[in-house]
Amino acid sequence: MPHYACALILEDNKLLLGRRAPYRKVYPNCWDVIGGKVEAGEGLEQALIRELGEEIGITPTNPQYFTEIKDRHLDPTAPPSYHYFIVRNWQGTASICNHEHTDLEWFPFDAAAGLPDLALEDYRDLFARLPFDLPAA
Length: 137
Fold this sequence. Notes:
Elements: E1 3-11, E2 14-20, E3 31-32, E4 34-37, H1 44-56, E5 59-61, E6 64-70, E7 81-87, E8 89-91, E9 101-108, H2 109-113, H3 123-128
Parallel strand pairs: 1-7
Antiparallel strand pairs: 1-2, 1-4, 2-3, 2-9, 5-8, 6-7
């Protein structure tokens, strides 16, 4: 079962999402959080830092583990685990750095939860919980 490190990047009561490129094999052209697969020998936070650097050119400072979602839609018998971190502070300016996304956009939490084309249906509940369940900074 693969593991993924994912960022809930928050600023001014908004969440940063990326639109997955239309040619992506999984969840093409859907809004998604930024993150990626944890590589062998890598911890969750290490993977998060690497993925955010590769995908949008930022380095998170003090990411806080938030929750986990298992993607049973993708594989009901051995679902991948997505591990979500709250990221409120980072170095750099977020911009698309590779071929994985075609757009980055900030959404108010309720607007993000209501998007019709989210990568995971579970995001609706996750985004609707923001900012109420946020750990202390």
